[in-house]
Write a structure and sequence with these properties.
- About 5% of the residues lie in helices and about 25% in strands.
- The protein is mainly β.
- It has two domains: about 80 residues, no CATH class; about 180 residues, Immunoglobulin-like (Sandwich).
- The radius of gyration is 32 Å and the shape is globular.
């Protein structure tokens, strides 16, 4: 009996000792606790770093202290918008060897861009030196020489496969380009490339210029109409007088070019000649005014109409001239 009681007493002493040890010394975590210096709102987020996704990560729970669970993947959707501002530049303390955004700063949409995602490298042509930073200082001067040096960000699909529309600008000019089969020297004299422009929401016409029996309705009140005959023997412009389309006497000498045998044409218009706009709305199309063959096609943007006779334009491109063409909005 004495031996049995001694055994029980020894067992109780062991249990008591274990309980005291558990209270006095916390268990060592299997994975080191998150370092307070690593959870810095200004520092780059390491794709391999993790945090507890079971707790909403607002300013009160994303604590630089030792309570973050380093074993749970971070949930990007739960980051407090105040800590991960997509519009904020990278912390100046970031590694200087890290590459900057592959795309121009002005291309980033702070509402749609993931703060941790890299900019799309395709939004800027890395091989084109003339395309400078597309932020507020954006400018791309196009040489009017028949060579297509528009970048991918300045290129827009049309309603007709094989036809493309281009837009760029610098401090002095807005540049437009078009490519497609009907730009070649074999084009018929009845075919035209046309562009409608507006720099404000008032003072223009919602009806376009009539070509034989085709007159389009426009998605904005246009103030200027540019036109180039595909035989390359006529380029002109019209502006809205308030009651009719009239000739504003713009000169295109040296401002339009199509190379011999080329399927690409480009032109430029002085920004001062169209009211020095900060916002420019644009739509473009080709048309054929031949009797029995009238049609409107290659509309830009591509969803503006379905090719056919006497098409009305439903949509337009809108450019903020302090930003890149890649940020063009489709209106309405």
């Amino acid at each position: 009996m004495r031996y049995a009681l001694s055994a029980l007493a020894l067992s109780a002493a062991v249990v008591s000792a274990v309980g005291c040890s558990d209270e006095a010394t916390p268990l060592e975590p299997a994975i080191p606790l998150l370092d307070a210096g690593a959870v810095d709102a200004g520092a780059k987020v390491d794709a391999g770093s993790v945090q507890d996704a079971s707790v909403p990560a607002d300013a009160s729970t994303v604590d630089a202290g030792p309570n973050a669970d380093a074993t749970t993947p971070a949930d990007a959707a739960m980051l407090d918008a105040g800590l991960a501002d997509a519009g904020t530049r990278a912390d100046a303390t970031a590694d200087a060897a890290s590459p900057t955004d592959a795309g121009p700063i002005g291309l980033l949409d702070s509402g749609a861009s993931d703060a941790g995602a890299p900019a799309d490298a395709g939004s800027r042509d890395a091989g084109t030196d003339a395309a400078v930073d597309a932020g507020p200082g954006y400018a791309h001067t196009i040489a009017i020489d028949g060579v297509n040096d528009f970048t991918a960000a300045e290129t827009f699909a049309t309603s007709t496969p094989g036809y493309t529309f281009y837009v760029a600008w610098d401090a002095t000019y807005v540049y437009f380009g078009a490519s497609g089969n009907d730009v070649q020297t074999s084009a018929a004299a009845t075919k035209w490339w046309t562009v409608y422009l507006a720099s404000s929401s008032t003072g223009g016409s919602a009806s376009g210029v009539t070509y034989r029996t085709q007159q389009p309705a426009l998605p904005f009140p246009a103030q200027w109409h540019l036109r180039w005959k595909t035989t390359n023997d006529f380029t002109g412009a019209l502006d809205w007088s308030g009651s009719a389309w009239a000739d504003p006497s713009l000169s295109f000498t040296g401002n339009v070019f199509r190379g011999a045998g080329n399927d690409f044409v480009e032109m430029r218009v002085a920004r001062a000649a169209i009211g020095n706009p900060s916002l420019l709305r644009v739509t473009s199309a080709f048309l054929n005014e031949a009797q029995g063959g009238e049609a409107t096609y290659a509309g830009a943007p591509s969803a503006t109409f379905t090719d056919g006779y006497d098409r009305d334009y439903a949509k337009a491109l809108a450019f903020t001239l302090s930003q890149s063409p890649a940020t063009a909005a489709v209106l309405p």
